[in-house]
Amino acid sequence: MAHNEKPLMLESEEFADWKIQMYLHLITMDDEIMTILKEGPIKIEKEKSEWTAKDRRRNNLDNHCMRHIFKSLDRNTFGKVRECKTGKEVWEKLIQLFEGSEQIKENQKEQKALMAAESKGKLADSVSDDSLSRDSDHKVDTCFTAKKESEVFDLSFDDFTRDDLIVALNDMVIKYRKLSESLNQTISKSKSRQKFGRDIIASGQPIADGHIT
């Protein structure tokens, strides 16, 4: 059962390739190693004194399997599996260590990709909302400005001269004076009526049909 080919050294980044090549390396040593990896060491169902050379070889297959696997491991990885008692335990422990880690890494990559996609989506929505907000503000400002411009003098209009401004201001002053005079007249009339009423009450004269008797 000589097998002089050196097994491939295990590298964590290339575990999938190592597993295939190591599996082929082991089963080419002996067909029954396939069974050992799946079910554990072969049990010889007879007294040890009755074992034949084939029985001793079969009984020792598990040790050969472990030795070849151990030879492919670095010191750090060997420290994680050296307590295993059978080739099957070593094989399954390595799969758990490396394929489990690979699955975790893959899950983390998928999670990061989803987070990145979600972040990009939120950014796009934010930009879109901001654009809509600016457009809306611009429309409101435009409408408000147009409304104000319809109520005030457009000083930027080329035909609007200094004389036009003076005339407009004079008109405003005249209108203000008229309003002020009208208000003052109303106040004076109100005060006169109040005084007249107080004088009537003070004199004690009766009032008939709105006239003093």
Tell me what you see in this structure.
The structure is a single chain. The chain has 213 residues and is mainly alpha-helical. Among the domains are: 12-104, no CATH class; 160-208. Helices cover 73% and strands 2% of the residues. It is built from six helices and two strands. The chain has a two-stranded antiparallel sheet with strand order 1-2. β1 and β2 (211-212) form a beta hairpin. α3 (53-71) packs parallel to α5. The protein is rod-shaped and about 155 Å long. Mean pLDDT is 77; it is low at 146-151.
Number of helices: 6
Distance between the termini: 152 Å
- What fraction of residues sit in β-strands? under 5%
Overall strand count? 2
Q: What overall geometry do the principal axes of the alpha carbons give?
A: rod-shaped
Estimate the mean pLDDT confidence.
77
Order of helices and strands, N to C?
HHHHHHEE
Which residues sit in consecutive blocks of at least 5 with pLDDT less than 50? 146-151
Give the oligomer, counting copies of the same chain as homo and different chains as hetero.
single chain
